[in-house]
Amino acid sequence: AQTVTQSQPEMSVQEAETVTLSCTYDTSESDYYLFWYKQPPSRQMILVIRQEAYKQQNATENRFSVNFQKAAKSFSLKISDSQLGDAAMYFCAYRSYTSGTYKYIFGTGTRLKVLA
Amino acid sequence: DVKVTQSSRYLVKRTGEKVFLECVQDMDHENMFWYRQDPGLGLRLIYFSYDVKMKEKGDIPEGYSVSREKKERFSLILESASTNQTSMYLCASLTGGYNSPLHFGNGTRLTVT
Fold first, then answer.
1. What residue in A sits closest to B4 (Cα-Cα)?
2. Facing residues of A11 across strands?
3. Chain A / chain B CB contacts < 8 angstroms
4. CA distance A25 to B61
5. Mind telling me how many Å the CA of A93 is from chain B's nearest CA?
6. Can you tell me the distance from the alpha carbon of B92 to that of B102, in angstroms, rounded to the nearest whole number?
7. Which of A31, B16, B39, B70 is 20 to 30 A from A9, comparing alpha carbons?
């Protein structure tokens, strides 16, 4: 069975600095998607970034980028120029599509604090 | 923009009550999901549905059931609420597109006393 591990329950970063959140996963599948979701205090889960396993190029979305290491099964999120609004829970998620259904597995989350 | 609406933001129920959590999406998505979120445990899948009247058990279905009579609505039912079902419940929907992400509702924080 697939698993997703976020080993950092909490991280802190100074405003304007860069922080990297870790995520590792385990799977025997070759075709899958990886996502990072952000959950601010409002509780609304927001998609931050996605990465297809077949694409070697790391995804980027403005200040957010990933370091996708398929062989190592690692999918870390880098936030550059951190802003106070980046403070939230961040969840790493794995998605596969098998037997006609989608399956999402989430990590336990990392709480990011941004210090002014 | 996709909108997933959960009927209640906060809910307080008594042990043994039958509880209904409602979720509606407005984008004609085929797939809908119910997750439970607990500190330190992340999001755990309770049930999901890939079509009207179709349902599949997730990882923690015990004590829950679901109903999907219309495509836009997916209900989570706690047949007899217990205190260990106190949690945050998140509904999500997904279209069949290969690279489409989950779209989440705002969550229902349920307290069972």
1. A44
2. A112
3. 48
4. 23
5. 10
6. 6
7. A31
Nearest of A35, A7, A32 to residue A21 by alpha carbon: A7
Chain B nearest C-alpha distance from A86 (Å): 18
Contact state of B90 with A45 under an 8 Å Cβ cutoff: yes
One-character DSSP codes across A33-74: EEEEEEE-TT---EEEEEEETT--SPPEETTEEEEEETTTTE
pLDDT for B1 beyond 90: no
Contact call for A50 and B40, based on CB within 8 A: no
- Supply B35's token pair: 């997750």
Q: Is the predicted pLDDT of residue B97 greater than 80, yes or no?
A: no
Give me the mean pLDDT over the A105-109 stretch: 95
Task: Give me the mean pLDDT over the B41-48 stretch.
Answer: 94
Nearest CA distance, B19 vs chain A (angstrom): 21
- Binning chain A into helix, strand and coil, the percentages to the nearest 5 are 5, 55, 40
Q: Is the dihedral of CA A61, B99, B91, A5 positive or negative?
A: negative
Q: How many residues does chain B have?
A: 113
Average pLDDT of chain B?
93
Q: Does B85 touch chain A (CB under 8 A)?
A: no
Of B40, B50, B102, the CB nearest to A108: B40
List CB contacts (< 8 A) between A9 and chain B: 40
CA angle (B70 as vertex; B60, B19 as ends), nearest 5: 45
